[in-house]
What we know:
Elements: E1 32-33, H1 42-48, E2 85-93, E3 102-109, E4 113-120, E5 124-131, E6 155-161, H2 175-201, E7 207-213, H3 215-226, E8 233-237, H4 243-256, H5 271-282, H6 320-331, H7 368-380, H8 399-403, H9 406-412, H10 420-424, E9 428-434, H11 444-456, H12 459-462, E10 466-471, H13 489-498, E11 504-510, E12 519-526, E13 531-534, E14 546-549
Parallel strand pairs: 5-6, 5-7, 7-8, 8-9, 9-10
Antiparallel strand pairs: 1-2, 2-3, 3-4, 4-6, 11-12, 13-14
Amino acid sequence: MARSNRSMFVVRAASVVAGIALLFGTIGANAAVEDPSVTQAPELAAATGTIAPALPCASLGQFPTLETEPQAGVPNFLDLPDAPTEISSASVVAATAQTPEYCDVQGTIAPQIGFELKLPTTTYEGRYMQMGCGGECGRIGSPGFPPCDLQPGGNFAVAATNDGHTGAGVWAVDDQLRVDFAYRAVHVLSIAAKAIITAYYGAAPQHAYFNGCSEGGREGLEEAQRYPDDFNGIAAGAPASIWAPLEIFQAWEARANVDAHGHPILTPDKLPALHDAVLAACDGLDGLVDGQINDPRACHFDPGSLLCPSGTDTPSCLTAAQVEAVRKIYSGPVDSQGRLMYPGGEPYGSELAWAGWMVQVAPGITTAAESLATDYFKFMAFRTNPPPSYSILDFPFTEQGFDSTRPLGQLYDATNPDLRAFRNHGGKLIIWQGWADQAIPPTGTPDYYDAVQDRMGGLAATQQFARLFMFPSMYHCAGGYGPDIFDVIDPLVHWVELGQAPDKIVATETSNGQATGSVVRTRPVFTFPEQAKYSGSGSIDEAANFVGVTPSPRPDDDVKWLGQDLFKGTDE
């Protein structure tokens, strides 16, 4: 495989889509070829760092029944404890300029957890990486390979799952499928994938990693909390870990922008002026006017400052109804007493990403927030589903309404701060999120990390195994109005395998928003709670001219809201 000239496992999003989704990259056209002979001797493989297959790829495919058995030397994966697995196909896919040749394995783990596992035929070096899903999942996002120039380098075996169902919404009428989505699918795929890897290469993977964003970030935290021995390293981006309250947030955001007649209040043409006003008010609060906001919690912007003169309505101002809608969007869900029902609302600086999320891009187009909340409350939130006529207009923003989501919320929420078992296993955890995340309020992630510190013995003790990185100006999982291209896999591998804990991650902004563009700006993101501070000399577009500084006074990460108790461990 041709080596890449960059060391960034880049995940980019082309647009806001109707669901919390993440694209892990695309693979070139797959061309099946005959399985090559295994000619590399074990001694040579060990010397070069690669591990050659011990079995032909095609031998993994099996439909074992009472009358048939797997091929000689191949385990019966239906016998896997807790993860009975059927492999429907196994075929070699030719190398491309972007990917190595690999054995493509597809199958199902009982009852209906679909998966794809890619096993490099010539470049495997003993690492397994499992990719997370997005939104409600319901599809297998074909897993991509990290670049080959990681140091320590080499290719991973990679896998992904559909979390046990296809499509959205109605699947959740089945309790088993709810459990599979909540946490079981990711766990049993790790069991099945490792067993298949062991059979194919003749040895178990030396290190196992998990990488996901949004729903995938939630899955990563679920793994650290419920199955601490599954992975050596976990990268959990923008985790949707406070799942049930997050759906209350989505319902609130969708309803905040609809009038009594069901018509949208705030329209996309108003968002640029709103964003510009926020930057004008808050950009310089970190001591540097650079077109981005380091920490939106320091910002105190009133949309009333954009109120249109009486009788006017132009893209440069907000009507009275729009001012009120924007205030609700920033505040996040509250009850009649003003108590938060989620630890935060839309962050200042996220405005340009509202189009498609809670602001309709065109009349009649359902927003992502409405779609997610509707599916959740109709099919996932309650033991007995409401009638088909139910809509998010029926959900009461009250303490009773909040509490009604608790029983099943414990299935989906990944909020336990007790990570002792993961730490004791030697696990390493990188959590990251954008400060301009329009889909999941970024204040919830430092809130959870604060609870982890309380449970695990303070910041220094927590940073021995778990570190948080917050990226200014970045939207949900990718995109934004500043540097948003970066790598979390390389530092995670260094931390797990070499003991080199990351103290910063450098993010890049390019001319076309893709890794192929020319570099416009690089900026370091330091281990939370440190923030990047300009050294006073050199270009503000070069990462080398910034140092990490803990803000003083430090913002309070412990948000007061109705679900604070969700951050207590099971033994507290």
